[in-house]
Amino acid sequence: MQKIDEIIDLGTIAYADAWKFQQKLFDKTIAQKKIKESTTQTLILCEHPHVITLGKHGNSNNLLLPTENLRKRGVEFFYTDRGGDITYHGPGQLVVYPIFDLDAFEIGLKSYIFKLEEVVIRLLNDYGIKAERMPGATGVWLETDSDKNARKICAIGVRSSHFVTMHGLALNVNTDLSYFSLINPCGFIEKGVTSIQKELNSNAPKMDEIKNRIILYFSEIFDIDKIDKKNGK
Questions:
Q1: Which residues, including other chains, have CB under 8 Å from residue 5's CB and lie 6 or more apart?
Q2: How far apart are CA 31 and CA 2, in angstroms?
Q3: Which of 86, 147, 181, 186 is the most buried (most CB within 10 A)?
Q4: Any idea what the CATH number is for the domain that residue 50 is in?
Q5: For residue 149, what are the domain limits?
Q6: Residue 64: pLDDT band by 50, 70, 90 thresholds?
Q7: Which residue is catalytic, options 186, 210, 214, 215?
Q8: Is 46 a catalytic residue?
């Protein structure tokens, strides 16, 4: 069984500050690998103020509003170094950043993405939401067999170097989905987005409840000993 050394809840934090926080841990873990030390596994939980991020291979045409207009609406914009295309982060969305050494888990990147998706699929099943994978697209989706109704509830974008990961997943809990109209989410033009709140047609579970469940399923699916999460940086 692998161990998570730290589970850190950063609360609501600006995207740039969270990126810097991740990067320090990411660089530390890579340095540990290079000198053959035991690596540190960290799970970061947070929410971001309104922000749109474009991945390193993303298409800027999927941003549907000039950046100066975004700023007027209180939305930041960042080019970032994760995989994937364009996405939105904001209040009511749980963002999870695992800084994992995949060699310690004895898995490759493809298996890692599969496990991230599985964490969310099992969590959503607890609320009676039938979620699944969509062939040719990362993330977690609903009604993938329907061109009209297929919709994404969780985006995934990862960076990996020396089989150490950063970035991760963004699960819409009670997110204001209107902000996704500013982009073609993840580069898809005809696919929708949704949230736990929207699917339940009621108040979403509390964010702390979702955090606890996501930690539980990380521990099950990655076969790890979890430790209690702590708040702050």
A1: 40, 41, 42, 227
A2: 19
A3: 86
A4: 3.30.930.10
A5: 2-231
A6: confident
A7: 186
A8: no
pLDDT digits (tens, 9 = 90+) for 126-185: 999 999 999 888 999 999 988 788 999 999 999 999 999 999 999 999 999 999 988 876
Identify which of 17, 200, 224 has the alpha carbon closest to the alpha carbon of residue 100: 224
pTM assigned to the model: 0.92
Number of folded domains in the chain? 1
